[in-house]
Write a structure and sequence with these properties.
Chain lengths: 163, 499
């Protein structure tokens, strides 16, 4: 997923490495489908069992992998602009942080605040403390609105239990 | 049932005070979310699904109707004021509308798009009300093989025929179909592609996929190319109202746009791009002011906007009568039905006429509310547009993850959301269309079960697909639509070589 913008852009008719990766990923997905389907016992008397459709889709994926491979070898992919990988990784880190906080019982407010601050930083904000304050207030309000008004339960952590 | 009686009955449901309130909330939320840049109607519906979890099906569907139309209105406001169409169907609107806003005619541009959407939405909803019962009569005679064939047509048209690359469109579709396989097979109870993870047994949630692809993917994509573009918000200057001249130049494009939008939306042909661009090029050809096109011609806003809304109402025809979503937004609406265990189709018309006709009647009401709400509130929407980008996308991501956290607060589900976000980013970067993935996920399992039912009835004879004339015709159409782009491309290359 690292954007190799260097190979995109102006030079056409060159092998597109990202395209090769996509083709390989599709072929791998097809292999997983067939492997998974092969473990299903066929019990259906008439017609199709549960293992038939995965195989059909796998065949389609293999054909599309070939199609994508041809496009990549011909350099037929649409031109790409350069991309800055840093903000992308920052947001992904924010998502990972959110998942970890939810997973360890840190609660909704802390988890979404972490995501808010990292995303805002990814978009160029440098006022981390101010953003943290905004995030905490906003997510607390959301938590209260959902918990009290809509009676939807959001995961509670140490902060939520104080409310 | 007589359409008028049914519609009157639906109106009686829709005008109950509680339902009016739901419609109003839906319209308001839909516009507020839809107006945010980068959020199209499909994502608006996906983000707001959790809000409706606790409502009864009737109220929730009515709120949905409001969210749907509100999201469309919001999207065109964004297209006009900051030239960032949330979806490709608003591209034609952005073309002329943003030029008008730059020239200080943002008010009339917003007005013609709001009134045009109202006119088109109303006419198209009338069309829906009259076409639906007739189509239901046809659809009750459909066998499983006919349904399967119909879905094949939808698969091909949404992915292959209209994108710039059939290979990439089909790739998206097949990724969606693969995701649709995950979980317990409904006919035999066996787990597929679950890899021993209990959360995967229920399958992939449509909302998780849509929010991941659209919201998280969009945020990642915009962040990665922040150094390229600076969005510029055009202030709304001058009068909001249209002059007599504006009216004179708008009403015909509204009607022509409706005529393009509704039939094409009602066919399982996928998307509002075709009618909006047809309308744009028609208005360009017919206008008495050709010199204004490209600089902000009001016809170029009025026509495509009407076409966009008419086709949105049109996509409800196959959705409600056949259970066949032909756009990402319609797929999200279907997910909304499914959260109550309701399956749109001929049966729903027979069993829950109050729901279906209440929904159709609410579309009229939502449309009227939007017309009344939107122009006076345009200042509020503009203020929403002015939220600084870092907070805007941070807020979008908080809302996006909140939906998943509220529905299923598990590490697996959230990881899937993040993974779909990365996938959405990669698909945007490498120019793969996103709607076919969502359609594949939601329609794939239905198509599979129809096919297996057909084969079970025929004792495994695959010829059953060709014995029903309906199914044979539809499969032929699907095959032609699948092969046409490749053949045409080949012809094009052949001609190019000859020159």
């Amino acid at each position: 997923m690292t954007p190799d913008g260097a190979s995109g852009g102006g030079q056409r008719r060159r092998v597109d490495r990202a395209g090769l990766v996509i083709a390989a990923a599709l072929a791998a997905l097809a292999a997983v489908l067939v492997w998974d389907a092969s473990k299903l016992p066929s019990t259906t008397m008439y017609g199709m069992g549960p293992e038939a459709m995965p195989v059909v889709i796998a065949v389609g994926l293999v054909m599309l992998a070939i199609g994508n491979l041809i496009d990549a070898l011909r350099g037929n992919l649409p031109p790409r602009e350069s991309a800055d990988p840093r903000p992308v990784w920052l947001i992904i880190a924010g998502l990972a942080l959110l998942i970890a906080i939810i997973g360890f019982g840190g609660g909704f407010i802390l988890a979404t605040s972490a995501l808010f601050v990292t995303t805002s930083a990814a978009f160029g904000r440098r006022a981390i403390l101010a953003d943290t304050a905004i995030a905490l207030v906003m997510t607390t309000l959301i938590y209260l609105a959902f918990d009290k008004l809509l009676t939807l339960s959001l995961p509670a952590g140490p902060l939520e239990r104080l409310l | 049932m007589d359409t008028f009686a049914a519609l009157a009955h639906g109106m009686a449901v829709a005008v109950q005070p509680m339902n009016l309130l739901y419609a109003l909330i839906g319209v308001f939320l839909g516009t507020a979310v839809g107006v945010l840049p980068g959020i199209g109607p499909a994502l608006t519906v996906a983000l707001l699904l959790p809000v409706t979890y606790k409502l009864d099906p009737g109220g929730s569907l009515i709120m949905f109707a409001g969210i749907y139309y509100g999201g469309m209105y919001g999207g065109s406001t964004t297209a006009i004021l900051i030239n960032t169409p949330g979806e490709s169907a608003s591209m034609a609107t952005a073309l002329e509308g943003n030029k008008m806003a730059k020239a200080g005619r943002g008010g009339p541009a917003l007005a013609t798009s709001a009134i045009g959407s109202f006119v088109a939405g109303t006419i198209a909803t009338i069309g829906l009300a009259f076409l639906a019962p007739w189509l239901v009569d046809v659809a009750v005679r459909f066998g499983p093989e006919d349904y399967f064939a119909l879905m094949c047509v939808a698969f091909v048209t949404v992915s292959a025929t209209f994108g710039d690359s059939p290979v990439r469109g089909l790739t998206s579709l097949f990724i969606g179909l693969t995701l649709g396989l995950v979980g317990i097979d409904k006919l035999t109870g066996q787990a597929r592609l679950a890899f021993g993870i209990p959360e995967l047994l229920d399958g992939v949630e449509v909302t998780t996929l849509a929010v991941g692809l659209f919201a998280v993917g969009e945020a990642l994509y915009v962040a990665s190319r922040r150094h390229h573009t600076e969005e510029k918000l055009e202030p709304v200057r001058g009068s909001l109202w249209m002059t007599r001249e504006d009216w004179r130049r708008s009403w015909k494009p509204w009607l022509r746009g409706t005529l393009f939008g509704f039939p094409i939306g009602a066919l399982p042909a996928g998307g509002a791009e075709i009618p909006t661009f047809l309308s744009y090029s028609t208005e360009r050809r017919l206008t008495k002011h050709p010199e204004e096109f490209g600089k902000g011609a009001i016809e170029g806003v009025a026509g495509p906007e009407a076409a966009n809304n008419a086709s949105a109402a049109g996509t409800l025809v196959p959705l409600l009568t056949l259970g066949l979503p032909t756009s990402a937004t319609a797929a999200m609406m279907l997910a909304g039905f499914q959260q109550y265990g309701l399956n749109p189709g001929p049966l729903l018309f027979a069993e829950r006429p109050d729901l279906v006709w209440g929904l159709i009647a609410s579309l009229f009401i939502a449309n009227g509310m939007l017309l009344v709400l939107n122009l006076p509130l345009v200042g509020l929407w503009v203020r929403l547009l002015a939220i600084p980008q870092p907070w805007l996308y941070a807020g979008i991501l908080v809302f996006a993850t909140m939906g998943t956290i509220a529905a299923k607060p598990s590490v697996v589900e959230l990881s899937m959301l993040a993974a779909f976000g990365v996938m959405g980013f990669a698909m945007r970067r490498f120019d793969f269309p996103i709607a076919p993935v969502v359609i594949g996920l939601i329609l794939g399992p239905i198509a599979e079960s129809q096919l297996r039912r057909a084969l079970a009835i025929s004792l495994g004879d695959p010829l059953v697909l060709l014995q029903s004339p309906m199914s044979a015709t539809l499969l032929a159409i699907a095959l032609i639509a699948l092969l046409a782009p490749f053949v045409l491309k080949g012809l094009g290359r052949f001609r190019a070589n000859e020159d």
